[in-house]
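subagent[fold] <- orchestrator: predict structure for attached chain, return tokens only, no commentary.
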Amino acid sequence: MDELRFDRTVIAIAHALFMNRLHVLRLTEVVRLGIKPDANDADNFTLPKGLDAEMRQLALNYVLTCLPEYKEAINAEKINWLRLA
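subagent[fold] -> orchestrator:
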């Protein structure tokens, strides 16, 4: 039972790493491209669709590099992560 709890904890940490990395990558692109706030939502800075997908993949690759021994578990969860991000 403790092993299952440990694995869930590692996956939760991996998700946090993913979201943090994605946030940094998106902010970097916002600054690099000089993206201005969305006209409909002043708090939202929208990246071009293809670029946003690339940032998600880069963030996922980062997590897989950090936790290679959990590759299978991360790949099983990534669908949910990508949908929520």
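orchestrator: received. Logging for downstream: Helices lie at 2-33, 49-66, 71-84. The first helix runs from residue 2 to 33.
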